[in-house]
Design goal:
Layout: H1 2-13, H2 15-53, E1 58-66, H3 68-75, E2 80-86, E3 88-94, E4 98-105, E5 115-119, E6 127-131, H4 132-138, E7 145-147, E8 149-150, E9 184-192, E10 217-221, E11 231-238, H5 249-330, H6 337-346, H7 350-363, H8 365-402, E12 408-412, H9 417-458, H10 460-468, H11 473-512, H12 526-552, H13 556-560, H14 577-580, H15 585-596, H16 598-626, H17 628-636, E13 641-644, H18 650-660, E14 663-678, E15 693-702, H19 710-713, E16 719-721, E17 727-729, E18 742-745, H20 746-752, E19 759-763, E20 769-778, E21 785-789, H21 790-797, E22 821-826, H22 830-841, E23 848-851, H23 852-858, H24 862-893, H25 895-903, H26 908-944, H27 958-984, H28 988-991
Parallel strand pairs: 4-10, 6-9, 15-21, 18-20
Antiparallel strand pairs: 1-11, 1-12, 2-11, 3-4, 3-8, 5-9, 7-9, 13-22, 13-23, 14-15, 14-19, 14-22, 16-17, 18-21, 19-20
Helix pairs in contact: 2-9, 2-11, 2-12, 2-24, 3-5, 5-6, 5-7, 5-8, 7-8, 9-12, 9-16, 9-24, 11-12, 11-24, 15-26, 16-24, 16-26, 16-27, 17-23, 24-27, 26-27
């Protein structure tokens, strides 16, 4: 019992060490669990929401729409749980300019159901539900009315009824028609689109660079009032996918099995079948057109024949009358005049009759005109017959070439811009949460070793007494092990509260400013929380055991005697006589105290350096993110404007831009959305052994004659990976695009482990795949551009029209590709350039206009900034605890020394200066070491942040170094305010009493 009481008294006496260990454990556990818990809560709530709303696992799109046969084929795919045929239509309306929206039918099979936020779901024709973004932008509310205009059919719609005035509807077999929605609309509800969780009232500008929406808004309408049987897409749910977390690899593998099956025989067979349907529909229309034309021509011919017969009858009547009159004159001598006239007319031979007809027609202007009209009508009819027949034959010959190959696009949730943005944001933050606790754990072990070693050393005589009285070494060591364990458990428990409540609440507040996540709640993970505490308990107990073993290896007699003072020795500075001789007495004492006690030097400098490094690391990430937009849109992109149009509007777009007179220089290119894939086959082609993955890219094809002009629009600099998160950047202009390979953006190459000489799989805008060689990796931070020459594009994707472009004499001889985009340099200020880009988007020929000036100014990454602020705050707290622990340990080790100084006549202020000067010097040394260490750690962390379409080129501004150094020194000064009263309370008499 006395042993226990003494142990409790010892614990109470060491309350400062207890608080120090508990605080370090609290901070470490909070960092370890907090960021993880915040991301996990967001992941889980979003996954529950997706399952509740039936967000599709797979979406199938086709360039020719999907027929009932396509839907039936998808339902037969093994692993597909449910298929929903979807109809949509793009419309435009006037809202401070021309705006576009997608009219989306609300499915009846429970897939992609909008989440009702206000009002009610639409049920009748003409009723719609809109998103909060539309309500905010338009100022409308529930009950407001809206009139929309359907957009014209896109270039992907095949027109196979272009013969002889056919009506031009989108048909395949006379029954499939394109969807059509009501145009007089009434808003009855406000909903959240499960495919896009972006918060329109939050940091909307932050995700603008990753927006993949083709229209401004989405309107949800019921099936009532929607006509047309042709589907624009099909959404699928996969068996077993709902049981997996949508953000886990197991979910991706489950869905991939189904997409691979669809990409196999189903996709190929249905593409061929669909094109054959279009060909059959075209042939049927030609046959129908020929039959209709033949009928019209037959009716016209019958009319001409009837008119000609009537004309001939009239002429024959005149002939008969003239012949009768002649015969009557010859028989005037008494014969029967009537009989003679009749006999004369009937006795005319055919030659005479024809001669008389021609004479009569020539003598009569009316008859001559009538005959000419009949002949002209017959001639025109014959010409129309020949022309129509020739047209139909031409249509028959051109039908196969006029209908392009049907392309299917099989996409999973990764293709949804809102989903991929949320996942990449959370993954990046979680990666930081996995790295920072390691530094906290190392610092915790170092500080625990320092504190517990001093605690054991102070009790060495008592330890020797207990061992001499027969107490086991384990029993004696348990006094300190239980002390450390209790401190870890209390600190860890408080850390779990902060880690599963405080930090997640902070992160989720920031996340909810960016995304709408219904049903979000905080959850506790018993396993992870317990392992988090256990990790720090093991580390601190290991340090305590080491300290106990170091002391208890001695005999009880040796332990009961005071520890021999450290033998005097010279320090290196003493050997530098010119310097040493000029140092004052107290300066020499300070130098000896600092450098003679190596363990205190290492612990103090190491602890301060670790805390300073954490602060620098956090600020480095913040500086890196802050400069991304400026570097990309000011330095790398030399052009001011990028304009993209549909293929059919490319010429009109270029004419529009040229007529405005704002462009000083431009480059026509072709831009397609595609994919870049690296297969980890281990064949040596990939840039990194075992690397695998896919990245969405922007494929930029450059005309063969203007390859050299690319360098004027985009800064081409070859890069190679650096060890500190930097990149070895080559000379500007040293990189050239040629016909031997593609140039891959650094952001994509870094994520996939691609380097110059690697082989990659490219997918172009039509879904055609090809294996390409990477000729170089270009410096690029935002977006994943892949540059390819016109000739190499043709070689990769087998463009028949482009195979001889390299040797063509002129663009008219062989125009391989449609240049649907323009990179341009503009005159005027940044504001005028931004306004011009906005005005271009209102033009019907322009699909998208992007101003680099606007992107540079609006690029933000608020989530990363919030997490960095959190990390810096925690690192600052750790620095404060570390300095407090080291300062108190330093004082406890030197109580007799401080008492001696007071006996010698030192005033309290002089004693403060004597002790604090050493701590400040050690702190400065730690700061000097921590600044470059923080740069190193920051570089390694940013290299680990492989986010889609982003590369973090590490940047640490001088101000960040200053802030880190000043903050650490400020913490050191703050600690002095706590230490000085302890020095004042030292009693010289009691402290100098013999410890024997």
């Amino acid at each position: 019992m006395a042993f226990v009481k003494d142990m409790l008294r010892m614990w109470a006496h060491s309350w400062k060490r207890f608080i120090s260990i508990a605080m370090i454990t609290l901070l470490g556990v909070a960092v370890l669990t907090g960021i993880y818990a915040g991301c996990r809560d967001a992941f889980r709530s979003t996954d529950r929401f997706f399952d509740a709303q039936g967000l599709h696992d797979v979406q199938v799109l086709s360039t020719a729409g999907l027929s009932n046969g396509d839907i039936a084929a998808l339902r037969k795919v093994n692993g597909v749980a449910k298929v929903q045929a979807e109809r949509s239509q793009e419309v435009t309306f006037d809202l401070d300019g021309r705006k576009s929206a997608t009219m989306q039918e609300i499915g009846t099979d429970g897939i992609d159901q909008p989440y009702l936020q206000e009002g009610r779901m639409p049920k009748k024709a003409g009723e719609i539900a809109v998103t909060r973004k539309f309500i905010r932008d338009s100022g409308k509310r529930i009950g407001s009315r809206l009139t929309v205009t359907p957009e014209s059919a896109s270039s992907d719609t095949f027109d196979t009824n272009d013969t002889n005035g056919a009506d031009g509807t989108n048909e395949t077999n006379g029954t499939d028609e394109a969807p059509s929605f009501p145009t007089k609309l009434t808003i009855v509800g406000v909903v959240l689109d499960p495919q896009n969780l972006s918060n329109p009232d939050g940091y909307s500008a932050m995700t603008s660079f990753r927006s993949t929406a083709t229209t401004d808004y989405t309107f949800f309408a019921p099936s009532d009032g929607v006509t047309g049987t042709l589907c624009t897409s099909a959404t699928l749910l996969v068996k077993g996918a709902a049981a997996e977390s949508t953000f886990d690899e197991s979910y991706e593998n489950t869905v991939k099995q189904v997409t691979d099956r669809i990409d196999g025989t189903v996709k190929t067979d249905r593409q061929k079948a669909r094109r054959q349907e279009l060909l059959d529909a075209g042939n049927k229309k030609i046959v129908d057109a020929r039959a209709e034309a033949d009928k019209k021509f037959a009716d016209a011919q019958s009319q001409i024949d009837a008119n000609r017969q009537q004309f001939n009858q009239q002429v024959d009547q005149i002939v008969s009358m003239q012949a009768g009159a002649a015969a009557a004159g010859a028989a005037a001598n008494g014969a029967n005049v009537g009989a003679a006239a009749g006999a004369g007319a009937s006795q005319l031979d055919e030659t005479t009759r024809e001669t008389m007809r021609e004479t009569i027609i020539a003598a009569s202007p009316e008859l001559t005109q009538a005959k000419q009209q009949l002949d002209q009508a017959q001639s025109q009819l014959n010409e129309q017959k020949a022309s129509t027949e020739q047209t139909l034959k031409t249509k028959e010959n051109e039908l196969k070439t006029s209908i392009p190959q049907v392309r299917w696009y099989v996409q999973d949730r990764q293709s949804l811009g809102g989903f991929s943005a949320l996942k990449s944001d959370l993954d990046s933050i979680q990666s930081l949460g996995n790295a920072f606790p390691i530094v906290f754990l190392l610092v915790a072990v170092m500080m625990s070793l320092t504190a517990m070693a001093r605690m054991v050393e102070e009790d060495r005589s008592l330890i020797g007494t207990y061992v001499g009285l027969g107490y086991g070494r384990l029993a004696v060591a348990s006094r300190y092990l239980l002390f450390a364990l209790l401190a870890c458990l209390i600190g860890g428990g408080l850390g779990l509260i902060a880690g599963f409540l405080g930090i997640p609440a902070f992160l989720l507040v920031v996340l909810q400013g960016m995304y709408v996540m219904p049903g979000l709640r905080l959850e506790y993970d018993w396993l992870y929380g317990s392992l988090g505490i256990a990790l720090f308990v093991v580390g601190v107990l290991a340090a305590t055991i080491y300290a106990c073993v170091q002391e208890m290896r001695q005999t009880p007699a040796a332990l009961m005697r005071p520890k021999a003072p450290r033998a005097g020795s010279r320090i290196l500075l003493e050997r530098i006589r010119p310097v040493w001789n000029r140092i004052g007495f107290l300066g020499k004492v300070t130098a000896r105290n600092i450098f003679r006690f190596k363990s205190r030097l290492i612990m103090t400098v190491g602890g301060v350096a670790g805390c300073t490094a954490l602060i620098v690391c956090g600020l480095a990430i913040n500086d890196t993110v802050a400069d991304l937009g400026i570097k990309q849109y000011r330095d790398i992109y030399q052009y001011d404007l990028m304009v993209v149009s549909d293929d059919s509007d490319a010429s009109a777009m270029r004419t529009k831009v040229a007529s405005d007179g704002r462009v000083t220089s431009s480059l026509d290119v072709r831009i397609e959305s595609g994919d870049l894939t690296v297969a980890g086959s281990g064949d040596g082609d990939s840039g990194k052994a075992g690397s695998s993955g896919s990245e969405s890219i922007q494929l930029v094809a450059v005309p063969e004659k203007h390859l050299s002009d690319l360098g004027e629009m985009v800064t081409l600099q070859p890069v190679s990976s650096g060890i500190l998160g930097t990149s070895g950047v080559g000379k500007t202009g040293s990189l050239k695009l040629d016909d031997d390979g593609v140039i891959v953006a650094q952001s994509a190459a870094s994520a996939l482990g691609v380097k110059a000489g690697s082989k990659v799989r490219l997918t172009n805008g039509d879904g055609v795949r090809a294996t390409a060689k990477v000729s170089a990796v270009n410096r690029n931070l935002i977006g994943s551009d892949v540059y390819v020459s016109e000739t190499y594009y043709a070689k990769l994707f087998d463009s028949k029209d482009a195979k001889n472009t390299k040797n063509s004499k002129s663009s008219e001889d062989s125009e391989a590709l449609t240049w649907n985009a323009m990179l341009a340099k503009l005159s005027g200020s940044d504001t005028s350039q931004t306004d011009y880009a906005e005005s271009l988007e209102e033009d019907s020929s322009v699909m998208k206009a992007v101003s680099c000036a606007h992107m540079a100014d609006s690029f933000k990454f608020d989530l990363m900034g919030a997490v960095v602020a959190l990390i810096v705050a925690l690192a600052g707290g750790l620095a404060l605890v570390v300095l407090f622990t080291l300062a108190n340990t330093n004082v406890s080790e030197r109580v007799r020394e401080m008492a001696t100084l007071k006996v010698l006549g030192f005033f309290d202020r002089e004693v403060h200066h004597y002790v604090n000067r050493e701590m400040m010097i050690l702190t400065v040394m730690g700061v000097i070491l921590g600044l470059p260490l923080g740069r190193l750690v920051g570089g390694m962390l940013t290299m680990a942040l492989n986010m889609p379409s982003l590369y973090f080129e590490v940047e640490v501004k001088p101000l960040s170094y200053v802030i880190a150094a000043v903050a650490t020194m400020a913490f050191a000064l703050l600690v002095q305010l706590f230490v000085n009263p302890v020095l004042d309370r030292i009693d010289p008499i009691s402290s100098l009493k013999s410890v024997e």
